[in-house]
Amino acid sequence: MVKASNSKFKDPKTPPDVEIRFEARKPITDSTLGIPVNITKVGNPQHRLVTIGDSLTHGFQSGAIFNTNQSYPVIIAKEMGWSDMRYPVYSGPEGGLPLNLEYLSRDLKKRFGDKVNWLNGLPAILSIRQYLDAIEEYWERGKGTVYNSQGKINHNLAVYGWDLRNTLSRNADICLDILAKNKPKNDFLRQVVEYHNERSAIVVLNSARDSNGKALTPIQAATVLGQEGNTEEGIETLIVMIGSNNALGSILTFNVSWSDEGYDDMSVNDKYTVWRPTHFKAELDLLVTEIKKIKARHVIVATVPHITIVPFARGVGGKARNKSRYFPYYTLPWIQDKDFNPDKHPHLTENEARAIDCAIDQYNDAITEVVRQARLEGRDWYLMELCGLLDRLASRRYIEDPLARPDWWDEVGGEYQLPPELEVISPPLNSCLFRTEPGKGRTDGGLFSLDGIHPTTVGYGIMAQEIIKIMQSSGVKFYKEDGSLREGEIKVDWKRLVAQDSLISQTPPNIDSILDFVGGIDKYLNLFSGMLRRNY
């Protein structure tokens, strides 16, 4: 990988431990890193699949956690024929926590038809506020405040918004204590469920307690699961997919604040939006020490995706220069090129985006080395190239601009080939922002949900398929519902997933009009841009 020597490519705020490189890190195509490991497999572990991670593992979609039965861990469990997988369930009449954009768009469709515009804009805003108020009432004062501490530990232990430190140190009691000390207020301007992340985490972890009732972190909970059963390993496959939130805040706020003193302190580190590579590695090393204590037969560790690729951060105009993978600016998806004003609208610059990506490349170098060392120790660990997967699906960055593709593009397989069942969907699925028009249905996107950050159900299916390939290579067996062994290559049931993916199979027609309406308001008032920064 060639480092960038020209200072014009480096944002001046970038710390010295971030290596600025001309092209993205080359993805690893061999999940074993070429290091053979032979392990003894005796008996059948009680827990066939346990997952630790953030929103991508939790199953976050379109601004909310609600379709947890369509998360990639549950998709995998279904293909394994394992119906005993436990995962958090979020009930309630308003479509999840904190704000289900798909539910909202369908509600607006019922009330105002296929378009939201200046003619019905005020009633639509009042309707949205009524909707937000109902969500607040349920989760802050209603049935959503009742948490079950009984029952067994969940197998999906992921929590959206959590980073490496949260996964190491946070538990349900910490979250309950925060809620007890901070009573919700009915703020007219800030109509978002207060402490929604803590409320979501409690649903995941409140049953994760030891024999004395002490609350457990996700790592500790997985350790307990690993000790259960009559075999050496209580867990057959452990998946760890964590680290995106050590950089994601930079695009949510369009502000790059590099980690510094207190990066490992949960009481102060929310002010940082990107972790320096040295800080990330220090946290990763602590996490790996704890993972090695978990009795799991196979461990799959995922790399961190380049978060600047997601369509929430929309590149403005054309590429910065010939053969560049970056746009001059990145801003909110509803702000059109002709309306964008860098003095007014939140944004990242080309060099800020490059610095974030380069830091993530160093995160992934560290993750790769962790897997390498584990395999050299005789542990059956694997690398899941989530970063490489997203790079190979990056429409505006690489697929639509062949000149911007890195030298390794063809060597790793080029553009990611969707399964035939997804290839036939029209218009073609891609990683652009989800767009629709009345009478036409979906006109663009389809791999990312309405929040522009998290996958659709079929997007989660792609992640599940890649992990299944690694699981099969490790010798994990997959079964039919009747208990008989499945032979040959295991493929996700795409027909079922497409039918379950309501954004694909029942596309709401008013997405473009909502985006245009929001963008029109922001053009003059900067209202939604300001709300985004206040609510992060």
Folded structure, characterized:
By secondary structure, the protein is of the alpha/beta class. Helices cover 37% and strands 8% of the residues. The chain has helices at residues 55-58, 72-80, 101-112, 121-141, 164-169, 172-181, 196-205, 218-226, 249-253, 277-291, 350-376, 386-392, 395-399, 420-423, 457-473, 494-500, 502-505, 511-525, 527-535; strands spanning 47-53, 64-65, 97-98, 235-241, 296-302, 314-315, 329-331, 347-349, 381-384, 435-437, 441-444. The protein has a 4-stranded parallel sheet, with helices on both faces. A 3-stranded antiparallel sheet has the order 6-7-8. The chain has a two-stranded antiparallel ribbon with strand order 2-3. The longest helix has 27 residues, at 350-376. It is globular, with a radius of gyration of 22 Å. Mean pLDDT is 92; it is low at 527-536.
Shape: globular
Assign a percent range to the helix content. 25-40%
Helix/strand class: alpha/beta
Low-confidence stretches: 527-536
Which oligomeric state applies? Answer: single chain
**Integer-rounded radius of gyration:** 22 Å
Q: What is the total tally of β strands?
A: 11
Average pLDDT value? 92
Distance between the termini: 34 Å
Strand content: 5-15%
Biggest sheet statistics: 4 strands, parallel
Work out the helix count.
19
* Series of H and E elements: EHEHEHHHHHHEHHEEEEHEHHHEEHHHHH
Q: Which strand order do you get reading across the main beta sheet? A: 1-4-5-9
